[in-house]
Specification:
This protein is an alpha/beta fold. 45% of the residues lie in helices and 15% in strands. It has 8 helices and 7 strands, in the order E-H-E-H-E-H-E-H-E-H-E-H-H-H-E. The protein has a 7-stranded parallel beta sheet, sandwiched between helices. Strand 4, helix 4 and strand 5 form a beta-alpha-beta unit. The longest helix has 29 residues. The structure holds NADP nicotinamide-adenine-dinucleotide phosphate. NADP nicotinamide-adenine-dinucleotide phosphate binds next to helix 1 and helix 6.
């Protein structure tokens, strides 16, 4: 077990990639604080983690609100004693409002930036003092391959994920001498609720079926499954990755190679 007795705070852990990471970390021995808006999904994750013999709490919150992160960090410390690992995973994709920039919805732009970029910034700000006291810790930001290249009709998403890499790299330098590593994972298309919306939009836009699109979507000829993000997330959270910081790892079936 690589994460025995660590406490991990994972945002967006109700479903998709966040859920897979929460269960994967619990399997490695970590206690989990899971955050999202849908209580029923959080309860199911919590139950699965408790069944593994780990401690788990869930917190229902809308993370686009600026005051959410500090309150949540205080709640987690109260319930589980500390935080060792922060995974900034909660995010909105480009699927709900895909449009070219001239037609882009300003409210959706603001929401995307608040959730995908400002929330990780505020969570980091609230968690770092705890990690500095212990001189150890891990921050893992879930960016995207769209954090490295542009995404037509998805400006807010691509901008937010590029920004998250800037936050990752800056924090990595600021914390490099304090035993704290900060890295990002850049998934390619992963079969989740968020991705489904975007894939349907792209298939329609290109006049092909979802199956046709999917067969061309990555060099491996398919989307990834949420569990396929877990091995890198475990590596980055564990002791063996102490010399890895400021990096952005693609897990994308060969889609991006830089
Ligand atoms: P997902 O299946 O839609 O899950 C998103 C999670 O975030 C859910 O638990 C959701 O729960 C939570 N969430 C969404 N809005 C929230 C809000 N305002 N406040 C609190 N929690 C919120 O999405 P996913 O595909 O797993 O995405 C997870 C992360 O991976 C995102 O940052 C996404 O950008 C990134 N990513 C995904 C892909 C992909 O292809 N799937 C590719 C690259 C990067 P509630 O709705 O209940 O709040």
């Amino acid at each position: 077990m690589q994460l025995r007795n660590r406490v991990a705070l994972i945002t967006g852990a109700g479903r998709g990639i966040g859920r897979a990471i929460a269960l994967g970390y619990a399997r490695e021995g970590a206690d989990i604080a899971a955050v999202a808006r849908t209580q029923s999904q959080l309860e199911s994750v919590e139950q699965e983690i408790r069944a593994m013999g780990r401690r788990a709490i869930s917190i229902t919150a809308d993370l686009s609100a600026a005051d959410a992160p500090a309150k949540i960090v205080a709640q987690v410390v109260e319930a589980l004693g500390t935080i060792d690992i922060l995974v900034n995973n909660a995010g909105v994709g480009s699927g709900p409002e895909p449009r070219p920039i001239v037609d882009f919805d300003d409210a959706f732009w603001d929401y995307t930036l608040a959730l995908n970029l400002s929330s990780p910034y505020r969570f980091s700000k609230a968690v770092i003092p705890l990690l500095l006291q212990k001189k150890t810790g891990r921050i893992i930001n879930i960016s995207s391959v769209a954090g490295k290249v542009g995404l037509p009709h998805g400006a807010a998403y691509s901008v937010s994920k590029h920004g998250l890499l800037g936050l990752t790299r800056t924090l990595a330098l600021e914390l490099a001498r304090d035993g704290i590593t900060v890295n990002a994972i850049c998934p390619g298309p992963v079969r989740t609720q968020a991705n489904e919306q975007r894939v349907r939009y792209d298939a329609e836009r290109r006049g092909i079926t979802v199956e046709e699109l999917e067969s061309q979507i990555t060099p491996i000829g398919r989307r990834l499954e949420p569990d396929e993000i877990v091995p890198v997330a475990v590596l980055l959270a564990g002791d063996s990755s102490a010399a890895i910081t400021g990096q952005a790892f693609n897990v994308c079936g060969g889609l991006a190679m830089f």
